[in-house]
């Protein structure tokens, strides 16, 4: 609820009943008007362009009615009401105290000691609340397991069906992870793998990866996950200049392991949004190409920061480990969480299937389910 509203031609100031006040520019309010001539009632999409808004837009009246804000815009002589809770949710009048390299709200970084977030296969397929909880764990922690699933090949595709679609690559709709003779990728051997993000040589990278266990009687082969955002936070705190180097210059990645495929990308190891929010990690020693975009005078410092990040990632205290049993799977946010594997012996068998999907589908499904829950509660 709003207590009061005052205005100048270019700014509306409102006071909420909880105490704080907030200012909104006339042009911002007009662009975000909620009336049916500005936004489609069904889907909320904007029906006007910035060019449709008069350049001399101003506020001629602003008042509070039933706790909400009513504004009249000139020269259109257009009156629009803005709900108080909508204004509170979209307020941008705040001191900019955001830290360089910060994580977004709703993300919890972690290291060793975290109990791997987990949900039951049958529950997430049958119970909306369980599915919503599983999706929320992936959004918050960057990974989560599913247990007690079927052991039929291609079951991983049913995991992707819970929230979106498989992203097909040169590996096909999915790929096998088991020992091969003359493999095209080291993932298809029994060797241990350093913690890494997948496919950094793609632009954009696949944002989610699903690994599904069908057989696992081999000795070893435990899965390990490392929070790349926590690793980046540690580097930022220990060596701000090194952090800035890895965020400020692009690395290069390349893959050309099979006929007809030559994938290359030029992206930073630590990716920030323009306002300094941490949005991505790319780290994969197997796919690194020569770094040629760092100035000569900074190359040694860049490598020192690269080494330091690698040491943080390799620290056993950073990893959460688990051994997948047949019918178990896990999903990782491939823009954030690195995954590794301990080496395993030739005795027994180890067969996993993997596929990629897109995080926007997961976040969309989660947001829609959360909105439906809120609406049902009202």
From TrEMBL:
<keyword id="KW-0408">Iron</keyword>
<dbReference type="GO" id="GO:0016706">
    <property type="term" value="F:2-oxoglutarate-dependent dioxygenase activity"/>
</dbReference>
<dbReference type="Pfam" id="PF06155">
    <property type="entry name" value="GBBH-like_N"/>
</dbReference>
<dbReference type="GO" id="GO:0046872">
    <property type="term" value="F:metal ion binding"/>
</dbReference>
<feature type="domain" description="Gamma-butyrobetaine hydroxylase-like N-terminal">
    <location>
        <begin position="10"/>
        <end position="87"/>
    </location>
</feature>
<protein>
    <submittedName>
        <fullName>Gamma-butyrobetaine dioxygenase</fullName>
    </submittedName>
</protein>
<keyword id="KW-0560">Oxidoreductase</keyword>
<dbReference type="GO" id="GO:0045329">
    <property type="term" value="P:carnitine biosynthetic process"/>
</dbReference>
<dbReference type="Pfam" id="PF02668">
    <property type="entry name" value="TauD"/>
</dbReference>
<dbReference type="InterPro" id="IPR010376">
    <property type="entry name" value="GBBH-like_N"/>
</dbReference>
<dbReference type="InterPro" id="IPR038492">
    <property type="entry name" value="GBBH-like_N_sf"/>
</dbReference>
<dbReference type="InterPro" id="IPR050411">
    <property type="entry name" value="AlphaKG_dependent_hydroxylases"/>
</dbReference>
<feature type="domain" description="TauD/TfdA-like">
    <location>
        <begin position="116"/>
        <end position="356"/>
    </location>
</feature>
<comment type="similarity">
    <text>Belongs to the gamma-BBH/TMLD family.</text>
</comment>
<dbReference type="InterPro" id="IPR042098">
    <property type="entry name" value="TauD-like_sf"/>
</dbReference>
<dbReference type="InterPro" id="IPR003819">
    <property type="entry name" value="TauD/TfdA-like"/>
</dbReference>
<keyword id="KW-0479">Metal-binding</keyword>
<keyword id="KW-0223">Dioxygenase</keyword>
């Amino acid at each position: 609820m709003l207590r009061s509203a005052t205005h100048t031609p270019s700014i509306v100031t409102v006071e909420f009943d909880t105490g704080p006040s907030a200012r909104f520019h006339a042009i911002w309010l007009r662009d975000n008007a909620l009336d049916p001539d500005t936004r489609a009632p069904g889907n909320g999409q904007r029906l006007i362009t910035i060019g449709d808004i008069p350049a001399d837009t101003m506020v001629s009246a602003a008042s509070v009615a039933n706790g909400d804000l009513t504004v009249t815009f000139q020269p259109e002589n257009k009156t629009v009401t803005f709900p108080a809770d909508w204004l509170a949710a979209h307020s941008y009048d705040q001191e900019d105290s955001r830290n360089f390299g910060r994580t977004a709200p709703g993300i919890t970084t972690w290291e060793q000691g975290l109990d791997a977030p987990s949900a039951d296969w049958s529950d997430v397929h049958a119970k909306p609340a369980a599915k919503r909880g599983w999706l929320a764990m992936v959004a918050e922690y960057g990974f989560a397991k599913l247990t007690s699933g079927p052991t039929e090949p291609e079951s991983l595709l049913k995991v992707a069906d819970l929230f979106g679609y498989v992203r097909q690559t040169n590996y096909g709709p999915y790929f096998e992870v088991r020992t091969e003779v003359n493999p095209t990728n080291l993932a298809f051997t029994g060797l241990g793998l350093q913690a890494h993000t997948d496919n950094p040589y793609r632009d954009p990278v696949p944002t989610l990866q699903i690994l599904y266990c069908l057989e696992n009687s081999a000795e070893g082969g435990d899965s390990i996950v490392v929070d790349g955002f926590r690793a980046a936070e540690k580097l930022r705190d220990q060596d701000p200049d090194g952090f800035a180097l890895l965020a400020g210059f692009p690395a290069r990645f390349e893959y050309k392991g099979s006929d007809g495929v030559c994938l290359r990308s030029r992206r930073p190891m630590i990716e920030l949004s323009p306002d300094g929010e941490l949005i991505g990690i790319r780290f994969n020693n197997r796919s690194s190409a020569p770094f040629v975009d760092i100035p000569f005078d900074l190359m040694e410092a860049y490598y020192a920061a690269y080494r330091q990040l690698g040491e943080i990632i390799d620290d056993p205290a950073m990893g959460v480990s688990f051994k997948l049993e047949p019918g178990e799977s896990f999903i990782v946010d491939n823009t954030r969480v690195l995954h590794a594997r301990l080496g395993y012996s030739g005795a027994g068998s180890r067969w996993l299937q993997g596929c990629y999907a897109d995080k926007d589908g997961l976040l969309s499904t989660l947001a829609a389910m959360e909105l439906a829950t809120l609406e049902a509660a009202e």
